[in-house]
Amino acid sequence: MGALNEIIFENRNKEYGAYKLREEYSLYLKKALLTGLGIFILLFGGAFTYLKYGKVKALDIDEGTTIDLTPEPKTPEKPKEIITPPPAKLEEPEPQNQIKFLPPEAKIDESVINETPPPGPEEMEKAIISDKTIKGEEVTSVFAIPPAPIETKIINIDQPMDDKPFTAVEQMPDFPGGLTELYKFLNANINYPSAAQKSNTSGRVVVNFVVNEDGTISNLKLLKGIGFGCDEESYRVIKKMSKWNPGKQNGKAVKVYYSLPILFKLE
């Protein structure tokens, strides 16, 4: 090895460090092999010694000792007693006056002995016919008296009672010009309340009112509102309307309920 190094480093600077490293390379290699071999022998020997002499002995148990691992039986629960309430006593009605009725029986004339005389008509009128005689309250009448007939009143179905408005008729009331003119009127007269605009409120208000025989509007009632001034504005516009064409039943002008939805919507 030294001769090879001399040839390689001929005419070169041997003090640079590479020459010295190559000179000591074999020595370092031997030390590394011996150190690795020693560590391997130490680990292998320690493990072998531990496995042979260092095992932890298990818990000593006598061969004659028996361990019962069977779980203890549960104590059966006693069945709950079902308490049956006593039957309710039915109140026995008061006994009514009854007379025993003797059915006819064929006998020889000589052996017929009239031990119990048959009841008379006066007794039968005040008693109920039964298979035995019982003393009780006298019955004034066996048959119930039918109630007096109720007088039937004929009502004219074309006109509601107490002159109340109709909910549906043959010809419903309408705004002059029809729905087209009605929507034009609403769009031209409704002012969107400022409170509703500030709160970004929109929705549908439904107002119910009565169209009278002469076409006038009365009895305004709010069926559905959204608040913020929209309900009041709907009332104001409806009261401002001109006369409607009244509803008719059998060709006669009558009062009719009418529900009008009004939509408030921000553009």
Automatic annotation (TrEMBL):
InterPro entries documented for this protein: TonB, TonB-dependent_transducer, TonB/TolA_C, TonB_C
Subcellular location: Cell inner membrane
Span of domain TonB C-terminal: 177-267
Topology relative to the membrane: Single-pass membrane protein
Presence of the UniProt keyword Transmembrane helix in the record: yes
Gene3D superfamilies with a match to the protein in the record: 3.30.1150.10
Region described as Disordered: 66-94
Keywords: Cell inner membrane, Cell membrane, Membrane, Protein transport, Transmembrane, Transmembrane helix, Transport
A matching Pfam family: TonB_C
TM spans (from-to): 32-51
Cited PROSITE patterns: TONB_CTD
Similarity comment text for this entry: Belongs to the TonB family.
UniProt cross-references to NCBIfam families, sorted A to Z: tonB_Cterm
Name of the featured protein: TonB family protein
Species annotation: Lacihabitans lacunae
